[in-house]
Amino acid sequence: MSTPAVSQELGAFLRAHRExxxxxxxxxxATARRRTPGLRREEVASLSGVGLAWYTWLEQxxxxxxxxxxxxxxxxxxxxxxxxxxxMRLAGYHEPVPFDRTAERLADxxxxxxxxxxASPAVLLDRHFDLLAWNAAWTALWGSxxxxxxxRRNLMWLMAVDRHLRSVxxxxxxxxxxxxxxxxxxxxxxxxDPRTDELYRRLEADAPDLRHWWGxxxxxELTAREVLVEPPAVGPVRLTLxxxxxxxxxxxxxxxxxxxxxxxxxxxxxxxxxxxxxxx
Length: 280
Prior knowledge:
The chain is 46% helix and 10% strand. With 280 residues, it is α+β, with helices and mostly antiparallel strands. It has two domains: 4-90, 434 Repressor (Amino-terminal Domain) (Orthogonal Bundle); 103-272, 2-Layer Sandwich (Beta-Lactamase). Strand 4 (237-244) and strand 5 (253-259) form a beta hairpin. This is Putative DNA-binding protein. InterPro entries: Cro/C1-type_HTH, Lambda_DNA-bd_dom_sf, MLTR_LBD. GO terms for molecular function: DNA binding. Keywords: DNA-binding.
């Protein structure tokens, strides 16, 4: 069952999507001037087949919803697959976190896989996007995570704050924003736990100009894409970003940046042989 804080997060998520929709988006005709953006609560309630008072309480975090009812609300709000999964997890319908696997044991199990890609930067993240393990290519490209304080050793923090990453990664903002959106899409109840609260406080302190990122309620999958990086002294390198979940812990995530061409492989190989640098 969801906690009050998570219920409020679910309500804020549903409200944000309701306000983004227009009557025409759901087959309705706008007949009167509207004082608020998007759909009215009564319109979403009607489309979902629930009572107005109950839907109002749902947005206020005062009631919980069954899977069936939440699916109906999601259809009314035109949520995509990532949005529906996020709403389900916020309501408490999520994959259980394995209880027989500690982060250390998971890192030990996955680290040999990461090391099998000597020219492809790769990292293992937990459900909070904290870095659990990484390979030499990751360190060569982005800097050693071991130089970052443990409470900030997190992909979202690195994307928002690390100056070296931002200087090496071309068009860093779209990828960084997608990282935040994917975190919200997959984290579910992790949004309300102490580690997430601590992480957001670190971001607020270290990157206050980007607070609109973690205050946003949009979600999205972290999609495969081409990434252009230009580390010092080796020239531009094109990488393909892909991701997958370890079978031992579906809430964890492996990110893999694969060189696209032989030239890119050669440049990444050269980079891994250079002296290591510290993360800024």
